[in-house]
């Protein structure tokens, strides 16, 4: 039972990270109907930028651990968000009117570009986050020791997702994003600046992905230039699992995938951990292609 | 159109002649590079059937390549069957495997299919690493695959492989060219252009999609056999996602749906980077940027397919139903 609880919290923490990355996929897919293959690499960039800022500014020494990390997260989000906007400008905007395939290839190209750019700048070896940035305490919940880090990750991702949900549902810009997701042409006729909406989507999605990268760095301590690919693919699976284009769906899908994976790794085999996620992907697409919370059936598949 | 044809044939003839003489004036290293180009040309042509002609995004082609290579390696090392005899076996295994995995997912649209094929590719790779059924040799793969033998002659050196591989390339080009012209090939093109209209004019789209998928995969399986014979060692890492991406990109770069385009793509993507070995690190980054630029400035690829005698949008009504 203790083992189960341990794996469950571990799964929820990883799931929170998947969910944060999945939000970027889901938002971009919702508005542009494009799988942004480079999104996983934006996550990697977030992890590396976080490391650079952490070691060069040492904010945590001046501001204390929590405030320092918070400020760090804000900086990473801003920087990765800007990279996201540049990515859209350079690789996707010129292809708005082109066939679907071109945009997919462009996304793959951008992914290769980012991955190798990170490798050139930081080197191909694993990089390590300094230890003990956040205090390594464990909280005793129901008689089981749960590392504080897990709870923080889960909490951060849930807070961000709720904030994003409220932003999309309650604000004027959020309404514009939803309108553009349903029908870009009609949204344009209603006076919505669709280009600006897409820009905002490419600011928020990568920002959340970037902060997820920072969290992975803080949680696992080691990062690599290729890691964005696996995380990205799993986050995409999470987005599909929850129903792509659906923000609560990304959250539910992410958490669920994290838990399935952690339990699968513990009770089936750790060697098959990655394969479990892809089996979930294939299974969900065969059985319920719209995902758990998806609605718009006819359009999708 | 017709006046252009002889000129084209002269160009192709000269290129073929130059290629055939290549082993006589190139050193081993470059002959080996050409062998790789040939191998990727076969893979590209096989994937081109699926992506270029039928419009199905398959980003997991390396999985079928792997199935072929492993079939060859396992049967060769365990039962000592000469590796080239296994060519049809590898093709059939990879084709059947593709049929098995594609059957439930083939109806998925565009990018959904793309993501599922990535998933299939990864599952296959992980299965190979985990030594599934205890025959794949795990992360180290399989070694000790015997050299192929043809008419009592052992094929060992790169120049000998050169002729084997490029003969296979030529055979593939011939067969796929004929296929393109056939009723089957034309049906695939209708399907790519407009699935609903194709279905409406009596093409069983699900059937055609699955058939192409299996045929393309079978061809990749045979390429896998040749790869195994050439390397004598295979490991799961040779069949990872980026391998699929390279196959996919060389089609898009060269001109999707066009045989000369795929060949050019293979030369550009596999051969050309060898010239820039010195910039090995920056190479891939430039390559990624080039992919983006290519899509923006020349979406259709460098050598897009030539217009047909009956362009698809100008088919007389009586010809509309294949």
TrEMBL record, chain A:
One of its GO terms (biological process) is L-isoleucine import across plasma membrane. It is a multi-pass membrane protein. InterPro entries: ABC_transp_permease, BCAA_transport_permease. GO terms for molecular function: L-isoleucine transmembrane transporter activity; L-leucine transmembrane transporter activity; L-phenylalanine transmembrane transporter activity; L-valine transmembrane transporter activity. Keywords: Amino-acid transport, Cell inner membrane, Cell membrane, Membrane, Transmembrane, Transmembrane helix, Transport. Pfam families: BPD_transp_2. One of its GO terms (cellular component) is plasma membrane. The chain crosses the membrane at residues 12-35, 42-59, 65-87, 99-122, 148-168, 197-220, 275-294. It is found in: Cell membrane. Belongs to the binding-protein-dependent transport system permease family. LivHM subfamily. This is Branched-chain amino acid ABC transporter permea se. It comes from Desulfonema ishimotonii.
């Amino acid at each position: 039972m203790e083992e189960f609880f341990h794996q469950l919290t571990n799964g929820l923490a990883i799931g929170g990270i998947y969910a944060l990355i999945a939000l970027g996929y889901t938002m971009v897919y919702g508005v542009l109907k494009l799988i942004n293959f480079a999104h996983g690499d934006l996550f990697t960039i977030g992890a590396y930028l976080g490391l650079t800022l952490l070691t060069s500014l040492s904010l945590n020494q001046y501001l204390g651990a929590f405030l320092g990390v918070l400020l760090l997260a804000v900086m990473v989000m801003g920087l990765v968000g800007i990279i996201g906007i540049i990515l859209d400008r350079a690789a996707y905007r010129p292809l708005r009117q082109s066939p679907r395939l071109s945009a997919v290839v462009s996304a793959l190209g951008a992914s290769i570009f980012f991955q190798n750019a990170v490798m050139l700048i930081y080197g191909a070896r694993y990089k390590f986050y300094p230890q003990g940035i956040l205090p390594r305490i464990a909280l005793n919940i129901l008689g089981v020791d749960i590392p504080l880090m897990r709870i923080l990750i889960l909490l951060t991702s849930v807070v961000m997702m709720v904030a994003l949900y409220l932003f999309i549902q309650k604000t004027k810009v959020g309404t514009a994003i939803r309108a553009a997701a349903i029908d870009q042409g009609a949204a344009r006729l209603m006076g919505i600046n669709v280009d600006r909406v897409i820009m905002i989507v490419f600011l928020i999605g990568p920002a959340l992905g970037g902060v997820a990268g920072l969290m992975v760095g803080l949680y696992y301590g080691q990062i690599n230039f290729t890691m964005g690919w696996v995380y990205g693919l799993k986050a995409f699976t999470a987005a599909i699992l929850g129903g792509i284009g659906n923000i609560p769906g990304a959250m539910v899908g992410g958490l669920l995938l994290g838990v399935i994976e952690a339990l699968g790794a513990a009770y089936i085999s750790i060697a098959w951990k990655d394969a479990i996620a892809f089996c979930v992907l294939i299974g969900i697409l065969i059985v319920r292609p719209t995902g758990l919370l998806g609605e718009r059936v006819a359009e999708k598949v | 159109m017709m006046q252009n044809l002889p000129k084209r044939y002269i160009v192709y003839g000269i290129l073929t002649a130059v290629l055939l003489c290549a082993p006589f004036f190139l050193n081993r290293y470059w002959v080996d590079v050409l062998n790789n180009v040939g191998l990727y040309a076969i893979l590209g042509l096989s994937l081109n059937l699926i992506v270029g002609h039928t419009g199905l995004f398959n980003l997991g082609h390396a999985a079928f390549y792997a199935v072929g290579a492993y079939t060859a390696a396992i049967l060769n090392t365990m039962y000592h069957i000469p590796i080239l005899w296994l060519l049809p076996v590898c093709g059939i295994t990879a084709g059947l495997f593709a049929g098995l995995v594609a059957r439930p997912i083939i109806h998925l649209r565009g990018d959904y299919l793309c993501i599922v094929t990535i998933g299939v590719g990864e599952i296959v790779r992980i299965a190979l690493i985990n030594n599934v059924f205890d025959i794949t040799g795990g992360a180290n793969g399989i070694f000790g695959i015997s050299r192929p033998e043809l008419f009592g002659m052992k094929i060992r050196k790169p120049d000998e492989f050169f002729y084997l591989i490029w003969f296979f390339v030529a055979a593939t080009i011939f067969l796929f060219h004929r296929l393109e012209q056939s009723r089957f090939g034309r049906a695939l093109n209708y399907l790519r252009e407009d699935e609903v209209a194709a279905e409406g004019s009596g093409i069983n789209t699900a059937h055609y999609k699955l058939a192409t998928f299996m045929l393309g995969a079978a061809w990749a399986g045979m390429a896998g056999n040749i790869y195994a014979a050439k390397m004598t060692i295979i490991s799961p890492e040779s069949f990872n996602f980026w391998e699929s991406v390279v196959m996919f990109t060389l089609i898009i770069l060269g001109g999707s749906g066009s045989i000369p385009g795929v060949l050019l793509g293979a030369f550009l993507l596999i051969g050309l980077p060898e010239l820039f070995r010195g910039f090995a690190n920056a190479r891939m980054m430039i390559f990624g940027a080039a992919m983006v630029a290519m899509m923006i400035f020349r979406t259709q690829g460098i050598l897009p397919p030539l217009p047909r005698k009956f362009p698809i949008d100008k088919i007389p009504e009586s010809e509309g139903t294949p």
